[in-house]
Design a protein that fits this description.
By secondary structure, the protein is of the alpha+beta class. Helices cover 43% and strands 20% of the residues. The chain has a domain of 156 residues: Beta Barrel (Thrombin, subunit H), CATH 2.40.10.340. Helix 4 runs parallel beside helix 6.
């Protein structure tokens, strides 16, 4: 009985062995990784693949969206009426506060115009929903359903209703990948509200903890201090909450304090986020009427100067005009000639 046939022998020589195939695949993978890491040759290919796989992400997210829709649909009428009353009451209160804030903002713009300084305008935001979360425990990354098609850019800051969430790291046309502030590769310039002390908040890999490793042992830091963005670096606008100091330890022999902070944003329960666009110029964001008021007010102030302002701007006795000085010199010369006449 023959152990092999001619067809079997030819097929053996025709197909490569699994070991050679594995070596070729590994070599091709390493070559592609090196080329993409150094020169980003595969950037366009990656974006194209992201566009192709976007419908798959939508399909994967569809059950969760359907579950939320069903849960909202089966609520009782009384629950919806109660929630509606609570939301209407909160909306009325917030509208009243917004009216006050609008008046304060207009007053702030007028004062800055009088002081000839740059006015800060409100930030323009874009609402985005989280499509997926990276399951790697060492990588705190998420994917949102807004991309460059909606005006999203790499490095754009991301917040929620409570504070800073993270920033965009990769643009995918119809979606975008973002890194959270608790990721080990993320660092954020912050400052303490109580004493304006500036430092860096570094991610620890834990969703409920940030680290402040660069403060010396004599730094004035206390439990409960609020951390906000300092605005340094230009990525995150200033004044947004980042976290609250939860633990301050001073270890012997260490030059820096061991400080931990709890993020203000609910990073493990967020569903929607706000993408902050870079602020535009004050003239572009100001209403036309307010802009005209700001242009006329300094002129009126300069033209309608009070007597008290005149005395402040010209302290001491007023100097005589050139004509008066000439008349005084004439009087002195006349008196001198009179005295000389008396002496003679």
């Amino acid at each position: 009985m023959a152990l092999s046939t001619p067809d079997r022998d030819q097929r053996v020589f025709r197909e490569p062995s699994p070991g050679v195939r594995l070596v070729l695949i590994c070599a091709l993978s390493i070559t592609l990784m090196v080329l993409d890491n150094r020169n980003e040759h595969l950037k366009d290919v990656r974006r194209l693949l992201n566009v192709v796989t976007y419908p798959i992400l939508v399909v994967i997210d569809a059950p969760f969206a359907l579950g939320h829709w069903i849960r909202d649909s089966v609520r009782t009428l009384s629950t919806l009426q109660t929630e509606n009353e609570v939301l209407n009451r909160a909306l009325t209160i917030n509208n009243a506060r917004l009216q006050r804030l609008a008046a304060l903002e207009a007053e702030n713009i007028r004062l800055r115009a009088l002081l000839d300084s740059t006015a800060k305008v409100g930030d323009r935001v874009l609402i985005a929903e989280i499509m997926s979360v990276d399951m790697d425990p060492f990588r705190h990354r998420i994917v949102v359903n807004k991309g460059s098609y909606d005006g999203v850019t790499v490095g754009q800051a991301m917040i929620d209703a409570d504070g800073i969430v993270g920033q965009i790291t990769r643009d995918q046309v119809f979606s975008a990948e973002a890194i959270l502030i608790t990721d080990v590769d993320h660092a954020l310039p912050v400052e303490l509200v109580r004493n304006r002390l500036r430092t860096i908040a570094v991610g620890t890999g834990e969703l409920d903890r940030l680290s402040l490793p660069f403060l010396p042992r004599n730094a004035d830091v206390q439990d409960g201090d609020l951390l906000v963005t300092s605005g340094l670096g230009g990525t995150f606008p200033p004044g947004y909450p980042v976290g609250i100091v939860s633990d301050v330890q001073s270890e012997a022999g260490e030059p820096f304090l061991a400080i931990s902070a709890e993020p203000s944003a609910g990073l493990n329960r967020i569903r929607e986020v706000l993408l902050i666009y870079p602020g535009t110029g004050s003239s572009a964001a100001m209403p036309a009427k307010l802009d005209s008021d700001l242009q006329t007010e300094p002129d009126q102030t300069s033209s309608e100067e009070s007597p008290a302002d005149k005395n402040i701007s010209n302290p001491g006795p007023q100097e005589n005009s050139p004509g008066e000085e000439t008349s005084d010199e004439d009087e002195i010369s006349a008196s001198g000639s009179a005295d000389s006449g008396d002496e003679t």
